[in-house]
Each structure stands twice: as structure tokens, then as C-alpha cells.
Specification:
The termini are far apart. The mean pLDDT is 85. This protein is an alpha/beta fold and 247 residues long. The chain is 36% helix and 24% strand. Helix 4 links the parallel strand 1 and strand 2. The protein contains six helices and nine strands; from the N terminus they run αααβαβαββββαβββ.
Length: 247
């Protein structure tokens, strides 16, 4: 409706404005760090900071835990993470094959609080608009090539980030003999080698697709990054004395 569209445009304008302030805030933060380091080491104030000494000193004294480090759009994007559970819609390219439909069903079981949505003839923009109106936090598009799942787009709503992941060596549960039913517990997450700035960004996009698990959950999901290839493993474990058995 017109009212929700006006609200969306206003929120997007505010979001873009906050994002435009990030560079300025980051530069001021770096100047404060340089000044504090010089004073702590007993060194002269750097020449480029002398004209700003009084202002920076006043700001440093006024900083608290919330203002000491600059906030960025990532903070805003995931401000409710861990407080409110994610709400995820999963859809596909048009006219999906039976294998992509099966993969979509498995993704629905894999991501807690997710729903499978039939694409029909709707355009992507229409689906995104409907998801925003319904309070969906993340929208996932699954794609295929010649009947084989080959891509996944994850878009955090309403303003992003949006990430594309290519899929290779996809093994469905349907392909595994004597596989047990998938646990619906909220999983513990394990991330390895996501230490770069891009890695941390990617980790956030994946991590916040899952609600906070209970401490006694026996389900784990592991993401291992190696040369920008992310290997994914999904296990349920059982404790037997001092042993841990993966299933």
C-alpha cells in the first residue's frame, strides 16, 4: 500500500544517510586512537593532530562503552539478532525441477523458522516487497542448472546485505542411504577461517539465519572456509561417557 511504501522509502533514506556518515566517524576514531597511543607512550602529539587536540581530548573523555568505537551499517542490519528470531522465506527460480524442489524442502528443514514459498509468475521485486510487508528478515532464492542446484542468494531485509553463493558437489539427504530424520533443534554454529573483513561479513550473514540454540542442543552446523570455498557439514552428536559420536 502507499503508506507502507512511504515508510520503506523514508527508512531507506535514513539508512543511506547513516551509511554516508561511516567514513567520517571511522576517520575520527582513527585520529583518537593515534592521539591516545601517543599520549600513552609519552610521545609528542602528531603534527596533523595538533590543531584538533582540544576537540579530540574532549571527545575521548566523553566517550563511553557505546560510543568509544564507531557503529556501522552491520550493527544496524543485525541490531535485533539474538533478541528476535529470524523469519525466513525460501523460494526458487521459476518452474523448478524435482531435484531443486527437494533441495528447497531440505533447506526449509535446515533453517529454523523458515517457510517455502512457491515462486509462480511473481517477479523478484514483488516477492521482496511482500516479504518486507510481512516482517520477513531474510529471503533466500535457490537456483539450478540442468536440474542440479548451483546457486543461492541470501538477502537480509529490508536493506541488505545480499550475498550470492555458488553451489557445487551438492549431496541431498535423498541421495544418502539409511539417513535418519533431520533434527529440528536450533543448532550450535561452528565457523572456521572467517577472519578477514569479508569473512566476518559473510559469517554474519550466515550466523544470523539461525536462532540462538539451547545449551543442551545436540545439533551442530559447521562452515569451513578454505580459499573462498565454504565447506558445509551438518551433524547431530551424542555423548557417550567421554566420547562424542557424530551422526
Amino acid at each position: 500500500c502507499a503508506m507502507s511504501m512511504r515508510k520503506y522509502l523514508r527508512e531507506r533514506k535514513e539508512y543511506l544517510y547513516r551509511k554516508s556518515l561511516e567514513k567520517t566517524e571511522r576517520e575520527e576514531y582513527e585520529r583518537k586512537v593515534a592521539l591516545k597511543r601517543a599520549l600513552a607512550d609519552g610521545k609528542p602529539v602528531p603534527t596533523e593532530l595538533k590543531s584538533q587536540y582540544n576537540k579530540l581530548t574532549h571527545t575521548i573523555l566523553a566517550d563511553d562503552d557505546d560510543t568509544e568505537t564507531p557503529h556501522n551499517t552491520v550493527d544496524d542490519e543485525y541490531a535485533r539478532a539474538g533478541i528476535e528470531d529470524p523469519k525466513i522465506y525460501i523460494t526458487t527460480s521459476r518452474d523448478p525441477s524435482s531435484r531443486l524442489s527437494q533441495f528447497t524442502h531440505e533447506m526449509k528443514l535446515f533453517f529454523p523458522n523458515s517457510q517455502k514459498v512457491n515462486r509462480g509468475n511473481h517477479m523478484s521485486s514483488q516477492i521482496v516487497r511482500a516479504c518486507i510487508d510481512q516482517g520477513v528478515t531474510d529471503l533466500i532464492f535457490l537456483h539450478e542448472n540442468r536440474g542440479e542446484p548451483d546457486g543461492m542468494i541470501i538477502s537480509h531485509l529490508p536493506f541488505g546485505p545480499t550475498m550470492y553463493f555458488g553451489i557445487s558437489n551438492c549431496v541431498l539427504r535423498h541421495d544418502i542411504e539409511n539417513v535418519e530424520s533431520m533434527s529440528l533443534q536450533y543448532p550450535h554454529l561452528i565457523f572456521e577461517n572467517f577472519s578477514t573483513k569479508l569473512g566476518e561479513r559473510t559469517m554474519s550473514a550466515l550466523k544470523y539465519l539461525f536462532p540462538v540454540p539451547k545449551s543442551d542442543s545436540t545439533r551442530t552446523v559447521t562452515f569451513v572456509n578454505q580459499d573462498d570455498w565454504i565447506s558445509f557439514r551438518h551433524h547431530v552428536f551424542e555423548k557417550r561417557g567421554t566420547e562424542i559420536i557424530l551422526k
